[in-house]
Amino acid sequence: MNSNAGLNESQWLKNVEMESVPCDVCGSYDAKVLFKGRDRLLGLPGRFYMVQCTKCGLIWQSPRPTQDTISAYYPSNYEPFSRAIDDEPLLRRLDRRYGMHKRCRAIIKRQSGGKLLDVGCATGNFLYEMSKHKGWEVMGVEPDHYASSYARQRLGLDVRTCTLREANLPADAFDVITMWNVLEHLHHPMAALIEVHRILKKGGWFVFSIPNVEGLEARLFGPLWMGWEMPRHLYLFPRSTLTRMLSDVGLKIEDTMCLCGSYLSFLLSLQFYLENRFSEKPWPRWIMRLAHSASVRIMSAPLFWMLDQMKQCSLITVFSRKSNLAPSLLLQNRTSSYD
Q1: Is the sign of the CA dihedral 259, 263, 266, 271 positive or negative?
Q2: C-alpha to C-alpha distance for 97 and 308, rounded to whole angstroms
Q3: pTM across the whole model
């Protein structure tokens, strides 16, 4: 439940504590402002800044809502907190199950079975689909009380209401760890990556999806690109910076691919563009209604398939493995105080 519901903008913002933070990768405060934006997805109050480290290239939001107050921007109707797939109308159910099937297939192609942890599992739909496959034992962690409770009660899943570090899971415990559109939401991604390395078995897979800040859609739409999603997306990761982050904690990128969501993510960016450019005109609504039709989606499928093959869509999935290297003591000490 959003405790800020019903408040005017000034009252809302008084309840949201902001903090300015250094680069999470190299610790530098030397950053350039990329742009100022607002919450285009949900329309919640506030103005936010995206900055980029001039030393390592990491992109992050500063100042940003603190970990204790950012929950105001995650109401129960936030799209990732979606209901069970079986509760959807037929066409929506088929569409969502197809997306989950692609995720499951990508995992099983690389690992035939074992223990899987989904970090930020929301209402548990991926875990539920994965649990149907023989040879898999699944669990999740999700800090949102509504979403984690739904996963336990509606889908019968083993989901803990906490962050990854709060879960205090045993070392070398999981064959696969997944984060579907989660890493960009974390206040301290480097600390999370260190914890992933600790609880992942040697040679185990860490699979995660993030906004593709170097993709064609990000360049095309600029500040109106859906991947910024301020203020919930606290970080974005250029490829060179991401490679360094993973390497520093003992993880190595094996492959990347555009796995799902290309068309719908494009439509969201298009919606933001039309709302910004033609806010007083009625016809953008008709454009979006047409764009969401099955006929347009089918006709445009070859184009988006090509963008996926070129890895130019808005969301990219990274497949990495635990190496023999471990995070340095210096890095572990720097992140040890983070929640």
Answers
A1: negative
A2: 19
A3: 0.92
How many structural domains compose the chain? 2
The one-letter amino acid code at 221 reads F
* End position of a domain, from candidates 51, 73, 95: 73
What are φ and ψ of residue 13, in 5° steps? -65, -25
Other Cβ atoms less than 10 A from the Cβ of 279: the count is 8
Measured distance CA(189)–CA(335) in Å, rounded: 10
CB atoms within 10 A of CB 23: 24
**Listed residue (117, 126, 120) closest to 170, CA to CA:** 117
What is the rounded CA–CA span in Å between residue 8 and residue 25?
36
Q: Residue 78 domain-assigned? A: no
What are the tens digits of pLDDT across the range 212-252? Answer: 999 999 999 999 999 999 999 999 999 999 999 999 999 99
pLDDT in tens, 19-63: 999 999 999 999 999 999 999 999 999 999 999 999 999 999 999
Residues 109 and 254 reside in one and the same domain? yes
Strands 174-180 and 114-119: parallel
Residues 6 or more apart in contact with residue 176 via CB below 8 angstroms:
107, 111, 114, 115, 116, 117, 204, 205, 206, 207
User: 177 - beta bridge partners?
Assistant: 117, 206
Contact criterion met (CB below 8 Å) for 272 and 40: yes
Q: Which domain holds residue 130?
A: 85-258+318-335
Nearest by Cα to 317 from 106, 105, 120: 106
47 and 189 co-located in one domain: no
